[in-house]
């Protein structure tokens, strides 16, 4: 049976219905995005049936979409296992301990950025960094008489920076999978925007720190965390061998799965020295179910009770349903119909990147969901990057710069609501999230100057999916790992 071509009107109607379903479900009912995305997939499938697509064709499109996420799913699974072992063997406590040592009343806001960035890099979670170290820093800020909104802005800036450059982050891996690019290549390319944004943020916070009078510092909460970690864990540079090995392998362009696997082996071996009371069974339990801290100090227990394979199942299931939706959305031609209507605009590289920024912010603003702000624009604009000779890592970087990095600026989004509730501040914190505010402008400058933009025919080895690899998908996925 011959299929019909998706029309612009039909595609817009489907897109509007999807936005309504996602918006009502996530914003009004406050549910996780999984089921709303399933409903969006059903709506898309109904339109596909109206276009005379067979169920087998649509199923094939969804399976193909999911296949692109297999490397990310394996990476996230390994990450969960690795974090559980890191928490057990003292890697996370050691990193946190050293981070708190740089706390200085004279450079409090700058220190807040650095500390939360370090914790976020090592845990791969901006929420964990903000909800643990961030809460303690807020207490110190009140003792110093520093604006809570400024402090919250510094905490968010550091946490988001660390999260975006962490190979342990779910959104970082999701973005790389969406753009079909190697995750370490994606992180390296992001340095062009995040490092300048971080430097600008640190300069602004430094100026604020020098020009704002500060009272006596009450660092009792931080002192308690430091003393507890010293007494409960072995704080030693030996625990840093595993993360440093992973970083070194990433610099050498070793693929993520082998890098994480070797880091995991080293982490397990060092556990027998840094946590001598732990058996191999304890290590396996931490790897599967995560590590549960029991120090008696709530902030420490909250920070260090993390990791495990089970902790990643939320992200893994989200990747599966989201990529299935994206594969169907593209497979029946909706994405092409929408993009075709903007062909005249999307002939220039700068306009393609600008459209990505606007789309990501639009999804964030309307729905308040950072995962969808990555997936929807990424699925819709992927071909436009290839058509304008832009490497997929330009797409992955822009999706992060305008999707997950802008997400904290949306008060009704997940992170925005989390910040206001956990750090007990009003919407005023938004004006001090300098890293989030600056990054998209740096992206747009690069977009129209062409600086740091990689053409499609360069660094082809980092592309997870190419036209040549389409003929042998199994070989492609093996190479990606």
TrEMBL record:
Main location: membrane
GO annotation, cellular component aspect: plasma membrane
Transmembrane segments: 12-31, 37-55, 67-87, 107-140, 190-213, 233-251, 258-275, 312-339, 405-423, 429-448
Membrane topology: Multi-pass membrane protein
Domain spans labelled Na+/H+ antiporter NhaC-like C-terminal: 158-451
InterPro entries xrefs: Na/H_antiport_NhaC, Na/H_Antiport_NhaC-like_C, NhaC_Na-H+_Antiporter
Keywords: Antiport, Cell membrane, Membrane, Transmembrane, Transmembrane helix, Transport
Pfam families per UniProt: Na_H_antiporter
Domain of life: Bacteria
Location within or outside the cell: Cell membrane
GO terms of molecular function: antiporter activity
Family designation: Belongs to the NhaC Na(+)/H(+) (TC 2.A.35) antiporter family.
NCBIfam families attached to this UniProt entry: antiport_nhaC
Protein name in the entry: Na+:H+ antiporter, NhaC family
Organism: Salibacterium qingdaonense
């Amino acid at each position: 049976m011959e299929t019909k071509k998706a029309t612009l009107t039909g595609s817009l109607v489907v897109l509007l219905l999807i936005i309504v379903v996602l918006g009502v479900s996530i914003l009004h009912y406050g549910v996780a995005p999984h089921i709303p995305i399933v409903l969006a997939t059903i709506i898309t499938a109904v339109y596909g049936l109206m276009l005379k697509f067979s169920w087998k064709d649509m199923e094939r499109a969804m399976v193909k979409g999911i296949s692109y996420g297999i490397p990310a799913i394996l990476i996230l699974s390994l990450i969960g296992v690795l974090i559980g072992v890191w928490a057990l063997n003292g890697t996370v406590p050691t990193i946190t301990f050293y981070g708190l040592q740089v706390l200085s009343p004279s450079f409090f806001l700058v220190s807040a950025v650095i500390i939360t960035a370090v914790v976020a890099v090592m845990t791969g979670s901006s929420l964990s960094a903000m909800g643990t170290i961030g809460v303690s820093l807020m207490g110190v800020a009140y003792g110093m008489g520093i604006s809570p909104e400024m402090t919250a802005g510094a905490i968010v800036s550091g946490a988001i920076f660390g999260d975006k450059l962490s190979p342990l982050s779910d959104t970082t891996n999701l973005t790389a999978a969406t753009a079909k690019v190697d995750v370490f290549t994606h992180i390296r390319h992001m340095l062009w925007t995040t490092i300048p944004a971080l430097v600008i943020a640190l300069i602004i916070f430094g100026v604020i720190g020098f020009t704002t009078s500060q009272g006596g510092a009450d660092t009792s909460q931080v002192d308690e965390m430091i003393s507890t970690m010293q007494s409960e864990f072995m704080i030693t540079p030996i625990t840093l061998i595993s993360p440093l090995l992973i970083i070194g392998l990433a610099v050498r362009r070793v693929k993520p799965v082998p890098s994480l696997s070797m880091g995991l082996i080293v982490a397990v071996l060092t556990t027998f020295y840094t946590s001598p009371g732990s058996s191999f069974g304890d290590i396996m339990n931490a790897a599967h179910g995560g590590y549960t801290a029991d120090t008696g100090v709530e902030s420490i227990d909250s920070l260090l009770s993390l990791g495990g394979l089970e902790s990643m199942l939320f992200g893994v299931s989200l990747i599966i349903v989201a990529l299935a939706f994206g594969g169907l959305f593209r497979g029946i031609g909706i994405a092409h119909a929408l993009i075709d209507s903007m062909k005249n605009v999307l002939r220039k590289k700068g306009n393609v990147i600008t459209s990505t920024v606007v789309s990501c912010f639009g999804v964030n603003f309307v729905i308040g969901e950072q995962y969808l702000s990555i997936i929807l624009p990424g699925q819709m604009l992927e071909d436009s990057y290839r058509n304008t000779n832009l490497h997929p890592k330009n797409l992955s970087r822009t999706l992060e710069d305008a999707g997950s990095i802008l997400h904290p600026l949306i008060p009704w989004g997940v992170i925005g609501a989390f910040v206001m509730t956990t750090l007990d501040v009003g919407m005023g914190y938004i004006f001090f999230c300098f890293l989030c505010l600056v990054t998209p402008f740096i992206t747009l400058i690069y977009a129209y100057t062409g600086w740091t933009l990689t053409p499609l025919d360069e660094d082809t080895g980092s592309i997870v999916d190419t036209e040549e690899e389409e003929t042998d998908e199994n070989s492609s996925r093996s190479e990606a790992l």
